[in-house]
Amino acid sequence: MNHLRFEEYNIGNNSGIFFTIDKFLYSTQSKYQRIDVFETPEFGRVFTLDGLTMTRESDEFIYHEMITHVPMFIHPNPKNVLIIGGGDGGTSREVLKHPSVENVIMCEIDSDVVNVAKEFLPTTSCEFDNPKLKIICEDGSKLIKKYKDYFDVIIIDSTDPTEGQGGLLFTEEFYKDCYEAMTENGVFSAETEDPFLHKKWLKLAYNRISNVFNVSNLYMGYVPQYPPGTWTWTFASKGLDPIKDFNPEKIKAFESELKYYNESIHIASFALPNFVKELINIK
Amino acid sequence: MNHLRFEEYNIGNNSGIFFTIDKFLYSTQSKYQRIDVFETPEFGRVFTLDGLTMTRESDEFIYHEMITHVPMFIHPNPKNVLIIGGGDGGTSREVLKHPSVENVIMCEIDSDVVNVAKEFLPTTSCEFDNPKLKIICEDGSKLIKKYKDYFDVIIIDSTDPTEGQGGLLFTEEFYKDCYEAMTENGVFSAETEDPFLHKKWLKLAYNRISNVFNVSNLYMGYVPQYPPGTWTWTFASKGLDPIKDFNPEKIKAFESELKYYNESIHIASFALPNFVKELINIK
């Protein structure tokens, strides 16, 4: 019997989660971070960066569907899509379900993450060979500066913010560059942490995004892979509204492939508990 | 420096959570279960039964607001309310915020839980001396048989289901007795576990409730105190609809006291992800 156990501490180190490991599949120290992949009895394959769970096979669909389909079904006709981060491939898999999409750029800073996903995470990296997808391994905060008025959808699927490299995807300058890189009908989503353990970063990220974009709305989902099991993203645009401009008819094109997202969930995800509204100063 | 750590295993024993303990406040073995109360740096006081977290000061408001206010704001004028379980007092605290309420019976099988809550959990047990509240320490599945056509609202705030005592609050017979004990306009809510770790019980409980009541709807919330951080309850009634008969105007009476629940959250909580719909066989 195998008793190997993975432990993950939450911010502040006063709480955390653990899970049993059946097998270590891979471990490396890349230029940017420590990468590990485990086989587990409870969650299937688990992929971690610097000891924090990024992706679990059992329920990664929730995070990836929510970061992707909420903005994608608001845009009337998304063709050019940029994903910053998203190295496991789950977000590009969801983006490529939309029949209107012609070109997807996935800009993941760490080529080791892409290679590990390709080898060990087939359920998320399954579209890496899709001819519509271009994978670029460089710093997303630099790449974004090369584009003006080009992308219909920009998705920021980053790691947790830190004072270092990860923090560059949470600055007001970066969000301004995203704004510039988007078309007039452009829409945007970004992971903005959770409202229990990461109050400070949620607030910072949401406030910075709302300083830059004309429309900005926090939305939420049930995401067990990230303690405490609640996650937020921020939708933003130059004018499109997440409810009024939402086009649920288009969901029918691939509704049987969706395990979490649907029309009611889209609308419900924008309903915020009072303590979350207070956190981001909305009445 | 204190390194005491509490560990809680999820069902199946392949994953779990842990948190640091500053101080053991109380521990006892009652007739029914082991009861512990800890002081923690992350979650304030934590109250556990048989090693499972029941209540944490930091975020118990979410579970208690959702199990209470969803049914209470659907009933046009709730006067007589029955809570089965709910020994920590959080549910009775929320029920007693409604100005129409005249009598609340809280039927908690374990008198030790009530005594521990009174002494160590002042933020949830704060209404134990309210003259509108009657606390009865007996088996709820027996007490319910004494009432016919009496309660406007019945709330089942039980522990996790088991094959033993806790399981009696999840049987079809018990739900039938609840139906009989309710008035024509009566409404009902029950905790029905989570859709990740407790799929089997969620399904069983929801199906049994929907076999008995004319109207039954699962609803969900972000509840970090119970891994995996998502929780469900089931609303049921003899005829009232959770959306059409919802009366949001009445929230104004004490909206400043609500930290989670609001009009949008009420409606949004009934939106179910596709995998949850599938679990309970609804299209």
Features:
Rossmann fold; 283 residues; 24% helix; globular; Spermidine Synthase, Chain: A, domain 2; alpha/beta; 2 domains; homodimer; seven-stranded mixed beta sheet; four-stranded antiparallel beta sheet
How would you explain this protein's 3D organization?
The structure is a homodimer of 283-residue chains. The first copy, chain A, has 283 residues and is of the alpha/beta class. The first copy, chain A, folds into two domains: 5-56, Spermidine Synthase, Chain: A, domain 2 (Roll), CATH 2.30.140.10; 60-279, Rossmann fold (3-Layer(aba) Sandwich). The first copy, chain A, contains eight helices and 13 strands. Chain A has helices spanning 60-72, 90-95, 111-120, 140-143, 172-181, 199-212, 263-268, 274-279; strands at 5-9, 15-20, 23-29, 34-40, 44-49, 52-56, 80-85, 103-107, 133-136, 151-157, 182-191, 215-222, 230-237. Chain A has a seven-stranded mixed β-sheet, sandwiched between helices. In chain A, strands 3-4-5-6 form a four-stranded antiparallel β-sheet, covered by helices on one side. In chain A, strands 1-2 form a two-stranded antiparallel sheet. In chain A, helix 5 (172-181) packs across helix 6. The radius of gyration of chain A is 18 Å and the shape is globular. The termini of chain A are far apart. The model of chain A has no long low-confidence stretch (mean pLDDT 95). Chains A and B meet through strand 2 and helix 7 of A and strand 2 and helix 7 of B. Strand 2 (15-20) of chain A pairs antiparallel with strand 2 (15-20) of chain B, so a sheet runs across the interface.
